[in-house]
């Protein structure tokens, strides 16, 4: 059976696509070395549209209205500009209610896009542009440590990572966040209150990497302007030993926290990237591999959720679990020495 | 294909679920179709695999290991079809699929309680999540409607409205808004559009939307007249659109479509088709109810005199949407089913954590108990939602009760993996709370939708497979409506077996009694209700009814309808444990 791989890697080649949500202009070029804050693409995005019903306003048939329209598709018009005129002796006119661009002019109507917003796409991670995706973005390649999480609030930022976690089940509280941490990416443990999230926002920080948090904080977490990345999940869960070790040993290094939403269909998931200098480019990690004895695995379900172990052996056929269910399973030895039967679907390979 | 040419063909049926992919083999044994065996594997629609073909092949390989029949070619790892003289391969493939993200759907109609209601029902017949609604009562300007559609990035727009030859101007205005919204979206992200409104506007619809929709399908009107609602033709077209959408979204669906020669249906649609078919075949006078709780959705299909009510509820699925169930129910409503003493906070975190890992299974007894409690509430909500759409002539004794049914057929991971048949039955009784007397069947291998898909290829197969006992008979349930104090006798029952021996029992209010009656046996059950209780024969009415046996026998559920659980959590948990013990622990 194939196993999904959770990447907790001290050194790997990391290739990431960074794209605009709408078509725009890509400013980065092939082989360009970029830093996380570099703008690599821009787009103008109209948040709203205005529909002007010329035929209805002038009370004329569609075809007649079309002749009264004075703008063409793609025209940029200023607020108050004339867009339609009935003509004749008692001419009536329609003026653009807002500045914008004409998207459709016909069928007796004018559709304008208004409220232009400029979107700037930043590189998000340091590396080299290896591919330019026309009008959309770029592919960036870098080398460094990679640590994947399970939940993110949709934001991305980079900064110097400062560890406030001393043991796996530490709790991060607001009183531990002082002004010296301004502009840092904080490595914390479990968060149980909104005060902590708000205190981090007030500093402000460049990101929070947490082992877990209560699900009741989700709404607040989404409102925060800095990235929040959760490694284990919801509830009070300690940080898995592999991530704990790797992150704490990289204390005081630059880290990119890409707290994007876990999209289980396209595979994008929240992750921490710590760029590291290399002389030889390491391998790209495999997204999945076959389960095998000796693999390091992480438990996905309670009561051992987040714990790291190793597969002693794969059981043949289906095995009866303590729950009474039957499933393909493996014997797993946890780091504390405990051995248990775990269904394969409840495991992910760490690597 | 004419029936005469397909009567002896072997059929491989594949179901790609959100968590599990199953492959089932049907073949002719002693002149009749039989379910031979099934293999299963974790589904691989999601990352990191992103190709359902991996899970499909693994499920088929597991099936091969069970049957010894080679189904996949050694060279290309493709299905061997037709079957070969050496016994390898199959003659035909059919498939169903529920994997994939919920279909983001905009529904539009003219009147909220007429065409929009039909549009909603139509959308609920597949794996959709309604993200926006447009109707005449909508106070937004057309450009605001348009912006809202664009922002919601729908996969599908369902347009209804106007009787045939009826309203057109309002309908055209709505079509314009939808057409412009489609035009403004990037070409590769434009939604598919199903038009099921005033048929006289078909040409205008084609003109306004044909060039802008991801794909446009026009089906017969769901409301040909004000009094008449006919969802069947439109739901058929919708099923095909959803399959097309999955082809666009998920790798490997194209290949499965080819293997099955286009016989690839949304699982819920195939389930509904079978229930409609069975309702007609067995001339069910009351109704057939089929429920399925899976990772992608909870599905309820009810057939009344050949008329189908189909409800697919991704919001009540036990997978990635699980955290969202709290938008539809209070956490205390889930807690009421809990046999364990855990806090509501623990349950809340459990729900959100499970939604991160939808395909995982409970490994410990405690986890299993929590999942069973969640499944009860999910199914409870799904059945209540579907019940609102039961035909108007289907009446219950009281509005808060279910109508009487002829049969209940259940499937899906949470039910089939109940731990024991008794626990599975108890889950169904708690969630559905049926009334009257009816047998319960368990579709342990989730064959029902596969039979629905096979029906379009071979009309004999579903009937012969069902009659061969592919489903597990759990037993006959007598659900008692009574108004009494706990401990007061509400029914006296006597079961006379075929050999003349008899068993007598008195059932007290709040109790569950089981009278053994093995599968395949029939007996006569005399019911004598007390205190004007209704044991399925009418309030206070006694009588004798024939009953069929099952794994559990005859189950008399005198816990009351609706089931009122004690407010005191300690007492409630004790009671739950006692009921659990009554059905075998």
Name some characteristics of this structure.
heterodimer, A: 351 residues, mainly beta, Glucose Oxidase, domain 1, OB fold (Dihydrolipoamide Acetyltransferase, E2P), SH3 type barrels, 12-stranded mixed β-sheet, B: 585 residues, alpha/beta, Nucleotidyltransferase, domain 5, Rossmann fold, 8-stranded mixed β-sheet, 5-stranded mixed β-sheet, 22 strands, disordered N terminus
CATH class of the largest domain in chain A: Alpha Beta
Strand fraction of chain B equals 15-25%
What fraction, in percent, of the residue positions of chain B are helical? 25-40%
Radius of gyration of chain B, whole Å: 25 Å
CATH H level, superfamily name of the domain at 103-249 in chain B: Cobalamin-binding domain
Number of continuous helical runs of chain B = 17
Enumerate the strands of the largest sheet of chain B in spatial order, edge to edge or round the barrel: 13-12-11-14-15-16-22-19
* Topology-level CATH name of the largest domain in chain A: Glucose Oxidase, domain 1
Q: What is the third-level CATH name, the topology of the domain at 103-249 in chain B?
A: Rossmann fold
- Radius of gyration of chain A (Å): 27 Å
Instruction: Tell me roughly what share of residues is in helical segments of chain A.
Output: 10-25%
How would you characterize the largest beta sheet of chain A? 12 strands, mixed
As residue ranges, the low-confidence spans of chain B are 1-6
The major pleated sheet of chain B works out as:
8 strands, mixed
Q: Quaternary status of these chains?
A: heterodimer
| Average pLDDT figure of chain A | 95
Number of strands of chain B: 22
Name of the top-level CATH class of the domain at 103-249 in chain B: Alpha Beta
SS content category of chain A = mainly beta
Give average pLDDT of chain B, whole number: 94
Describe the structure.
The complex is a heterodimer of chains A (351) and B (585). Chain A is mainly beta and 351 residues long. Chain A folds into 3 domains: 2-38 and 123-275, Glucose Oxidase, domain 1; 45-117, Beta Barrel (OB fold (Dihydrolipoamide Acetyltransferase, E2P)); 291-350, SH3 type barrels (Roll), CATH 2.30.30.30. Chain A is built from 5 helices and 28 strands. In chain A, strands 2, 4, 11, 12, 13, 14, 15, 16, 17, 18, 19 and 20 form a 12-stranded mixed β-sheet that branches. In chain A, strands 21-1-28-22-23-26-27 form a 7-stranded mixed β-sheet, with no helix packed on it. The longest helix of chain A is centred in the middle third of the chain and has 9 residues, at 194-202. In chain A, 45% of the residues are buried. The model of chain A has no long low-confidence stretch (mean pLDDT 95). In chain B, helix 5 runs parallel beside helix 6 and helix 15 runs antiparallel to helix 16. Chain B starts with a helix and ends with a helix. With 585 residues, chain B is α/β, with parallel strands linked by helices. Chain B has helices spanning 3-6, 52-67, 115-123, 142-152, 169-184, 202-209, 232-249, 253-259, 267-281, 331-335, 344-356, 365-387, 413-416, 421-432, 448-455, 460-467, 569-582, and strands at 11-16, 20-29, 32-42, 92-97, 103-108, 128-134, 156-159, 192-195, 215-218, 264-266, 288-293, 298-304, 307-313, 407-411, 436-443, 472-479, 489-497, 502-508, 511-515, 522-529, 543-548, 554-558.
């Amino acid at each position: 059976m194939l196993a999904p791989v959770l990447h907790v890697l001290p050194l790997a080649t990391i290739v990431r696509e960074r794209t605009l949500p709408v078509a725009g202009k890509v400013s980065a070029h092939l082989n360009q070395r970029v830093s996380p804050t570099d703008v690599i693409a821009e787009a103008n995005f109209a948040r709203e549209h205005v529909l002007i019903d010329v035929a209805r306003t002038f009370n004329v048939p569609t075809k007649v209205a079309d002749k009264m329209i004075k703008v063409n598709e793609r025209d940029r018009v200023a607020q108050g500009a004339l867009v339609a005129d009935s003509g004749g002796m008692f001419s009536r006119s329609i003026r653009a209610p807002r500045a914008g661009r004409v998207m459709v002019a016909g069928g007796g109507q004018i559709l304008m896009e208004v409220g232009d917003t400029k979107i700037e796409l930043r590189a998000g991670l340091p590396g080299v542009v290896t591919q330019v995706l026309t009008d959309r973005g770029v592919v960036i390649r870098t080398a460094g440590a990679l640590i994947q999480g399970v939940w993110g609030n949709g934001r991305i930022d980079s900064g110097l990572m400062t560890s406030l976690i001393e043991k796996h089940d530490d709790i991060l509280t607001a009183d531990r966040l002082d002004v010296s941490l301004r502009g840092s990416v904080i490595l914390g443990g479990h968060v149980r209150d909104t005060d902590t999230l708000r205190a981090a926002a007030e500093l402000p920080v460049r990101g929070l990497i947490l082992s877990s948090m209560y699900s009741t904080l989700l709404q607040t977490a989404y409102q925060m302007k800095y990235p929040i990345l959760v490694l284990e999940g919801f509830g009070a869960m300690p940080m898995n030993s592999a991530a704990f070790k790797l992150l704490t040993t990289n204390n005081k290094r630059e880290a990119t926290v890409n707290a994007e939403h876990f999209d289980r269909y396209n595979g994008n998931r929240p992750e921490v990237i710590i760029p590291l200098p290399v002389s030889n480019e390491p391998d790209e990690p495999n997204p999945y591999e076959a389960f095998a004895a000796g693999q390091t695995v992480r438990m996905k379900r309670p009561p051992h959720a987040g714990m790291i172990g190793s597969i002693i052996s794969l059981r043949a056929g289906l095995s009866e679990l303590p729950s009474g269910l039957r499933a393909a399973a493996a014997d797993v030895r946890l780091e504390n020495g405990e051995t248990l039967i775990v269904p394969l679907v409840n495991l992910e390979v760490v690597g | 294909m004419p029936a005469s040419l397909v009567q002896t063909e072997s059929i491989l049926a594949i179901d790609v679920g959100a968590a599990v992919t199953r492959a089932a083999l049907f073949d002719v044994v002693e002149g009749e179709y039989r379910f031979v065996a099934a293999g299963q594997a974790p589904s691989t629609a999601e990352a990191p695999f992103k190709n359902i073909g991996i899970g499909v092949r693994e499920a088929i390989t597991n099936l091969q290991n069970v049957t010894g029949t080679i189904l996949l070619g050694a060279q290309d790892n493709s299905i061997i079809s037709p079957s070969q003289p050496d016994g390898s391969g199959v003659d035909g493939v059919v498939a169903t699929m529920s994997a994939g993200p919920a279909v983001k759907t905009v529904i539009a109609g003219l009147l909220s309680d007429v065409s929009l209601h039909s549009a909603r029902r139509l959308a609920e017949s597949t794996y959709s999540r309604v993200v926006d609604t447009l109707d005449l009562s909508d106070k937004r300007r057309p450009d605001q409607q348009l912006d809202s559609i664009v922002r919601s990035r729908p996969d599908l727009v369902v347009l209804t409205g106007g009787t045939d030859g009826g309203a057109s101007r309002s309908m055209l205005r709505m079509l314009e808004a939808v057409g412009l919204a489609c035009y403004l979206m990037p070409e590769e992200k434009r939604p598919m559009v199903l038009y099921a409104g005033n048929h006289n506007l078909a040409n205008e619809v084609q003109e306004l939307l044909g060039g802008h929709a991801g794909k446009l399908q026009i089906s017969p009107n769901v409301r040909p007249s004000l009094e008449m609602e006919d969802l069947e033709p439109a739901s058929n077209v919708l099923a095909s659109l959803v399959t097309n959408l999955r082809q666009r979204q998920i790798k490997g669906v194209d290949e499965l479509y080819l293997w099955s020669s286009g016989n690839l249906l949304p699982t819920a649609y195939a389930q509904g088709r079978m229930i409609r078919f069975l309702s007609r075949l067995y001339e069910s006078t009351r109704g057939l109810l089929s429920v399925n709780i899976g990772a992608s959705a909870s599905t309820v299909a009810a057939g009344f005199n050949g008329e189908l009510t189909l409800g697919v509820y991704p919001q009540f699925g036990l997978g990635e949407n699980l955290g969202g169930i709290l938008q539809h129910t209070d956490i205390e409503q889930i807690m009421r089913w809990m046999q364990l003493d855990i806090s509501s906070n623990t349950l809340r975190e459990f729900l959100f954590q499970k939604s991160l890992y939808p395909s995982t299974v409970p490994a410990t007894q405690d986890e299993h108990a929590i999942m069973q409690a969640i499944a009860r509430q999910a199914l409870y909500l799904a059945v209540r939602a579907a019940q609102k759409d039961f035909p108007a002539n289907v009446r219950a004794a009281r509005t808060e009760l279910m109508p009487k049914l002829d049969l209940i057929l259940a499937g899906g991971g949470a039910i089939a993996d109940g731990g024991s048949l008794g626990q599975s039955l108890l889950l169904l009784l708690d969630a559905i709370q049926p009334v009257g007397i009816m047998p319960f069947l368990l579709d342990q291998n989730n064959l029902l939708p596969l039979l629905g898909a096979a029906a379009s290829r071979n009309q004999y197969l579903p009937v012969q497979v069902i009659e061969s006992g592919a489903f597990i008979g759990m037993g006959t349930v007598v659900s008692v409506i009574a108004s009494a104090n706990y401990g007061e006798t509400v029914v006296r029952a006597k079961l006379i077996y075929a050999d003349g021996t008899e068993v007598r029992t008195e059932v007290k209010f709040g109790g569950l009694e089981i009278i053994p009656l093995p599968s395949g046996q029939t007996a006569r059950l005399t019911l004598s209700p007390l205190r004007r209780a209704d044991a399925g024969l009418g309030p206070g009415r006694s009588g004798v009814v024939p009953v069929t046996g099952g794994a559990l026998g005859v189950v008399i559920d005198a816990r009351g309808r609706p089931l009122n659980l004690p407010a005191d959590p300690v007492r409630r948990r004790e009671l739950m444990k006692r009921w659990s013990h009554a059905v075998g622990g």
